Amino acid sequence: MRITFLGTGTSQGVPMIACPCEVCHSSDSFDKRLRSAIHIQTNHYSIVIDTGPDFRMQMLANAITEVDAILFTHEHKDHSAGLDDVRGFNYHMACDMPIYGSAHCIEAIKRDFQYIFREKKYPGIPELEVHVLPNAPFTIAHKGRPALAVTPIEVLHYKLPVFGYRIGSFAYITDANYIAEEELAKLKGVKTLVLNALRHEPHLSHFTLKEAIEIAQKIGAEHTYFTHISHQLGKHQDVEPTLPAGMHLAYDGLSIAEKEY
User: Fold this and answer.
1) Superfamily in which the 2-257 domain is placed by CATH
2) Could you give the CA distance from residue 41 to residue 36 in angstroms, rounded to a whole number?
3) N or C: which end of the chain has fewer CB within 10 A?
4) Is residue 106 over pLDDT 80?
5) What are the CA-CA distances from residue 76 to residues 91, 102, 106, 143, 234 (Å)?
6) Predicted local distance difference test score (pLDDT) of residue 153
7) What's the burial of 230, exposed, middle or buried (CB within 10 Å: 0-12/13-18/19+)?
């Protein structure tokens, strides 16, 4: 399995519009962050987690020409606003796009993209195959290929339930500031963990870097990558050397392999 970070930034991206700070004006490519999303390539499936406002650019920049399923963590626009651009895959792959998300996430998507779900549809709109997920393991199985097991990890983003996802020994969690013990138990044995780390100062709905490190140490993955990073965290080159062994700041375009798949 290969994981590619399509974006590692927070809701406004880095640089942020009109911000005078040194991070937003950095010339280091590691400090340029699109909205958070990842691509997972297994032996049989190409999967994207979240379609934020930068979805089209992320697909083009990473030469992704096939997507078999989209998993949504939650409905906030920095994770869903690019959904309309799945049309390119509808045309190229000649099939509906399977999307997966919690009941409240799918409900919000249907509300925000109501034109997609009308009985009388406008020609050329996205074609979707919708799967509503409970907080329970499920499988992705399309076109006669072997089933891929996925486990949702429910976390809290302030008071909003958000799904992280575990596939084999890899887990992806973003937009969290609390993980219950029963959900942490689902992460036992994870070798590669991705976790959000917004900034140093406390935040209402996101882990700080210190909190993310503590959670990562509790989970005990061999490798942890922090994502959903804001300009307030500081420059990549300054923060990266301060992290504990086995922990890193993710960056846009980073590609890692998980040997289990």
Assistant:
1) Ribonuclease Z/Hydroxyacylglutathione hydrolase-like (3.60.15.10)
2) 17
3) C
4) yes
5) 26, 13, 11, 30, 24
6) 98
7) buried
Tokens for 12, please give them.
């406004």
Q: List the domain boundaries for the chain.
A: 2-257
pLDDT digits (tens, 9 = 90+) for 157-169: 999 999 999 999 9
Name the CA dihedral angle for 249, 173, 8, 189, rounded to a multiple of 10 degrees.
Answer: 40
Average pLDDT of the chain is: 97
Give per-residue pLDDT as tens, 170-229: 999 999 999 999 999 999 999 999 999 999 999 999 999 999 999 999 999 999 999 999
Residue 241's alpha-carbon distances to 128, 248, 251, in angstroms, are: 43, 9, 14
Amino acid identity of residue 138, one-letter, is F
Q: Please measure the distance between the N-terminal and C-terminal CA atoms of the chain and give it in whole angstroms.
A: 5
Secondary structure (DSSP) of the chain: -EEEEEE-B-TT-BSPTT--STTTT---GGG-BPBPEEEEE-SS-EEEE---TTHHHHHHHTT----SEEE-S---HHHHTTGGGGHHHHHHHTSPEEEEEEHHHHHHHHHHTGGGG-SSPPTT---EEEEEEPSS-EEE--TTPPPEEEEEEEEEETTEEEEEEEETTEEEE-S-SB--HHHHGGGTT-SEEEEE---SS--SSS--HHHHHHHHHHHT-SEEEEESB-GGG--HHHHGGGSPTTEEE--TT-EEE-TT-
260 pLDDT band, cuts 50/70/90, is: low
Show the tokens assigned to 91: 């045309």
